[in-house]
Amino acid sequence: MEWKPIETAPKDGTHVIAYRPTKYGEHIESMYFDDDGWFFSFDGEYGEEQPTHWIPRPAAPKEGSSDDRRHLQAPESQP
Q1: 37-40 and 25-34 as β-strands: parallel, antiparallel, unpaired?
Q2: Which residues pair with 53 in a beta bridge?
Q3: Is the separation of the CB atoms in 7 and 20 below 8 Å?
Q4: What pLDDT score does 34 carry?
């Protein structure tokens, strides 16, 4: 899969994998666009450096998806 120019990314709130060069290095992260610009998917934070390229997010894995949350529990609370 090849990176696409950010101008071609969906602007409807769809989460994409975005590439953005920063003063701290290159970042590849899940982002989405709304009326105020590009935001990080995990916390709604806004990055000073804007993404330059994007690719679609792959489908989530079937095994270990949000339906199977046992691995997220503390060991003493697991059945």
Answers
A1: antiparallel
A2: 5, 19
A3: no
A4: 86
pLDDT at 10 (0 to 100):
96
20-46 pLDDT tens trace:
998 889 999 999 998 888 888 666 566
Return the bridge partners of 46, or none.
39
What residue type is 33 in one-letter code? F
| Number of domains making up the chain | 1
What tokens does 45 get?
A: 């934070």
Q: pLDDT confidence of 78, banded at 50, 70, 90?
A: very low
Cα separation, 22 vs 60, whole angstroms: 28
Report d(CA 24, CA 47) in Å as an integer.
12
Q: Which domain holds residue 58?
A: 4-77
Rounded to whole angstroms, the Cα distance separating 65 from 77 reads 20
pLDDT interval class at 62 (50, 70, 90): confident
Distance of alpha carbon 14 from alpha carbon 45, whole angstroms: 16
